[in-house]
Amino acid sequence: MRFILLLLPWLELATLIQLGIETSALTALAYVFGTFVLGLLVIQRQGMGMFQRLREAQHGQVLGTRLLVDDMAVGLAGLLLLVPGMITDFAAVIVLIGPLRRKIQRFFAGEQPEVYRSERDSDSHVTIEGSYRRVDD
Fold it and tell me: Membrane-spanning residues where (predicted)?
């Protein structure tokens, strides 16, 4: 794994050089700039959506692990798009495709149990008051 991480920048550089040879240097630079901007937009949109879900969780809705994993995966895809190169961009596209991302998650993490959702009615704010005493004393 370490070897792949050390080799990745050189492979990315080789793919960009090959793109420049096949098209033009200006096209390769435009590609790098375009994927960088796309990565920024993905991260911005993902961040705003995550804050919206956190606000909803404050109002009584349950945050599932699936939502958190999806948010983290989309954030990772945005970061991969920021890195110049075609290999990380291909990996980002794979991560951005929802069904494929979930299959990869099930492969690595196994099947996740369903999140418990309480049957609480969020529209009625009824407080039940009462008293109690311990019977076992």
Answer: 26-43, 73-97
